[in-house]
Design goal:
The protein is an alpha+beta fold. Helix content is about 40%, strand content about 20%. Strands 2-3-1-4 form a 4-stranded antiparallel β-sheet, covered by helices on one side. The relative contact order is 0.16.
């Protein structure tokens, strides 16, 4: 894979797309001060290089709670009894595949993993715990934390300030 070099225009486009990825190419070009063809070519390059990994819709927890009932956000620290590559990869694969799990982080030092999950309620958490923790013979310890308030949630990557 080629080395990735990002100039001020690339960073400006990335900043704008992180704020609103639903912008049309024309609107994005206008906000970035570029010709639409140039804007399209640059964004396509950023996607091809893998800098733009994917575009998703971020759902509002408050609106989803109105529609589906309040859910339970879980942050869990997971330690395994073996830190072999095989054991770590196996647990990671199972956690990544579970629909309730939103984020999987391998961390060090301390626990082996930190998971962020969204479940409908405490029975939903118990089902998740059974699937991921209880049924895995290598899970030694789990510390689960239940969110009482989301003070900040961001999905943007901090970028250098545009110099132009």
């Amino acid at each position: 894979m080629p080395a990735i070099e990002l100039d001020d225009i690339d960073l400006r486009l990335l900043r704008l797309l992180q704020e609103d990825a639903s912008l049309s190419n024309h609107a994005l070009a206008q906000k970035a001060g570029l010709a639409p063809a140039t804007c399209h070519r640059r964004v396509h390059r950023l996607r091809t290089l893998g800098v733009i990994e994917r575009e998703v819709a971020l759902l509002s927890p408050a609106r989803m709670a109105e529609a589906l009932g309040h859910g339970l956000s879980v942050i869990a620290e997971v330690s395994l009894d073996l830190q072999t590559q095989e054991a770590l990869n196996a647990f990671e694969a199972r956690a990544v595949a579970d629909e309730a799990v939103q984020q999987v982080w391998r961390v060090s030092p301390g626990p082996d993993f930190v998971l962020v999950a969204q479940v409908p309620d405490m029975p939903g958490y118990q089902a998740l715990a059974q699937r991921l923790f209880t049924e895995d013979r290598h899970v030694r310890n789990v510390r689960a934390f239940f969110a009482t308030k989301r003070a900040k949630f961001g999905a943007t990557w901090p970028l250098p300030i545009d110099q132009t």
